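#struct-help
A.M.: can someone run this one for me? Single chain, 235 residues.
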Amino acid sequence: MPGVWLQLAREVIRAKIHNQRVMLMRNGDVPDRVTSLMASFRDSTESARDLTALLGVEGSAAALYFEQFESMLKQRDDWKFDWRGRNRRPPRDPVNALLSLGYSMLAKELTGVCYSVGLDPFLGFMHQPRYGRPALALDLMEEFRPLIADSVAISLINRGELGPEDFIKSANGMFLTDKGRRPFWEGWFRRLDTEVSHPEFSYKMAYRRMLEVQARQLWRFVRGEALTYHGFVTR
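D.P.: on it. Structure tokens below:
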């Protein structure tokens, strides 16, 4: 099974890097060298010989993506972002607070999806299993991180639906206030209800349903009912 797991991991990371690149091209203002380098990282996933090499490529792509992340945010006179890259446990600024919350919700969403299609969410092929960690849900969410969680954070800020008054800073990090959670949930459900087309199967559905389609596709692949797994990518 190790070869199957590596094949799956390559496709998931390829899709994730592709989607990160699309996000930068759609929403950011980045030089051509960045998009070219992201494409190079994406394409090199196919030749990764083992999981360690693959995760090295993913890490390099993620570092470049988050280095350019601020270019996707519209600066406002009343809110100057103190963006110094991705941080977590705890998040130390509003943008990272939104990203961490979005990733947490996406993991919970996919944990439920795994159960619904008959997969064990705690047995992953990339993330190491440990007590209480939904490793498979974390694996499945990789390709959707940019398109759902990151997109929600960017949209809420750029639309002016959240401001600095909607966050509170404590010794435990930066978090949304009770008032700030309402626009977050509205943005979250709005994104899950957004319809998109699957690149391989050519039919439209909401992201909420697409999560289930990908989980079912994974289930068919590991059972030998499908020859390959197609990661979800957008144009």
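A.M.: thanks! The chain has one domain: 2-222.
D.P.: also worth noting: The chain has a mean pLDDT of 90.
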